[in-house]
Specification:
globular, 3-stranded antiparallel beta sheet, 9 strands, alpha+beta, 23% helix
Length: 189
Amino acid sequence: MGYGWRLDPQKLIQLSGKGFSAFKSLKNGIKMDTKKIIEVAEKEIGTTEVPPNSNKTKYGVWFGYDGVAWCGIFVSWCYHNAGFPLGNIGFLKGFAGCQTAVKTFKESSRVTENPQPGDIVFFDWEMDGRYDHTGIFVKKIDNVYFETIEGNTSLTNQSNGGEVMRRKRKYGKGVLFVHPKCLDEVILA
């Protein structure tokens, strides 16, 4: 099953050299530009559940698992629509639950202390070793704070707030950054 496009590697090299923003040129191939993940997520800011407090979203419909907490589904949707499908992390289209995703990423050594734009961040609010929420790392603000885009959050409910929002979060305990393998894949020329 394809993702709607197929390009010859030589065409990709030509496109990357002409400012086509989805690709970065490498010595022996093309690497996708991870900022596309943030661009996809930014377009979703303000999207809410319909009806309110239902966990029903277009992300859940796409995922095939609607009406459930959807922060991980939102991250999976953004990656997929940016051209970086996460693959099977408990579900064919990515992940719904933070626990399964964190376990998978830890087992595959994808945890990082130096997050890059487009990486995934997980939050353990209760500091009990169980991750409660996830989002997309946008940028470092300073040595204390970073910016994210998250699904199913709000100012009154961090993990089940029903909206896609840009958030300012604090570095520290209970925060885990992940650099998925799909971000490192290179199309060889």
